[in-house]
Design a protein that fits this description.
single chain, about 180 residues, 2 domains, flat
């Protein structure tokens, strides 16, 4: 149900959430969050994965224009692997509880690329009905890409640069170990 949120076995309505307090890691206590509630009930404790689910929770949906698509480019680790693009229809725009507007696909709300996350290395893109393609993530550049081929070229170049930097760092570390 869209209006309910569950954390550590407790359930509350989204409208009952008054504030979220971040509690940093302490000895014998993992980093977590406390949900302060309007109802006056005991605050709900939640961990980072619960908070990630809450912050991307849509509170309002607005239909996307037909033809809007969400694109993820996958670049292989080697030159032999052919890059490809996964395309999903964006069916709505979700105003999330954290105030961000995110695309909604049949698979759910898209959180966007987070460079700090190892779970999603590849940035995401939106293709609008007029054919314009824009990067979608936390620090996207305001660029308009002409085609999917240009996006693939950009991501392939970025991946190859990353691999070169990674190899250089590994070589430097091995030289330090030897000396």
């Amino acid at each position: 149900m869209m209006g309910l949120f569950e954390s550590c076995g407790d359930v509350c309505t989204l409208s009952d959430i008054k504030a979220v307090q971040h509690i940093y890691e302490r000895p014998r206590q993992a980093e977590h969050y406390l949900l302060q509630l309007h109802s006056g009930r005991e605050p709900l404790k939640m961990f980072a994965f619960d908070y990630a689910a809450l912050e991307a929770r849509p509170v309002q949906l607005m239909l996307a224009e037909p033809g809007t698509r969400f694109l993820t480019v996958f670049v292989g680790q080697t030159e032999d692997e052919v890059p490809f693009v996964d395309k999903l229809p964006a069916i709505a725009w979700a105003l999330s509880i954290d105030g961000q507007v995110r695309p909604e696909t049949p698979a759910g709300v898209v959180r966007g690329f987070n460079p700090a996350s190892s779970a999603n290395w590849y940035p995401d893109y939106l293709e609008l009905p007029d054919g314009a393609i824009h990067q979608f993530d936390y620090d996207a550049e305001p660029e308009n890409f002409e085609s999917v081929a240009v996006v693939i070229s950009r991501e392939t170049r970025r991946q190859r640069n990353y691999e070169t930097e990674r190899a250089a760092r590994a070589a430097a570390r091995s030289e330090e170990t030897i000396s």
